[in-house]
User: Fold this.
Amino acid sequence: MEHLSISLPEQKDYSYAYGLAFKLASEQLVKSKDIGGLCGRCGCNCKVEGDKKVIMLEYLNKNYRVTLPEVEIRQMPGGEEVQLRDKILIAHYLVKSKGTPLSGKQITYQELKEGNTYFPTFAKRVIKPLVDTFGKCPEKLIEAAAKLGGIRSDSGDVSVTISAFPRVPVMVVLWKGDEEFPPEGNILFDSTISDYLSTEDITILCQTITWELVQSRKK
Assistant:
């Protein structure tokens, strides 16, 4: 299934661009004739309620309900409103997923399409805040990540794997540093991630994860 994406600027036009991105993804989602197959590729569940189709999926340890043909996305069980940024990620995940089995091979952001080009911004907005927040107390990362469903991994000095979507694991890795070297960090992905999200979506997803982790540490 062809994935329609749009570059999301950070300047004054971002609201329009976000709205257009969601509109395009919604149109593509509604056109899908095999919702069961789509859900199978995404690793989520679907059902029919009257003349509506309902998709249930998990995103960052929370449950979401997507109702078609309206493409109404609500957080469950309370039916809370969802930020447009998250709606776009959910819709893009649904329409782009190829169902590729996880490889177990990890890659860095630089190995993604155009990852080298965008990495300086990615490092500034995703990796640096994590290192600044958890570098001197990396064990706190485990506690913060648990709120996103993260589990401890065995990379670096401290690492956690967060299941952002059913088939999109994201690993956050920290190295403590010493007298000679400052703390460092990185984000690792399964090599199949580009079969589920574009590089732009991966960037926004990781920014969201970083924000959630940093805010959790501050509380």
Observations:
- Confidence is low (pLDDT under 50) at residues 1-12.
- Residues 59 and 165 are 5 Å apart (CA to CA).
- The beta strands are 45-49, 52-59, 62-68, 72-76, 106-108, 151-153, 158-165, 168-175, 184-190.
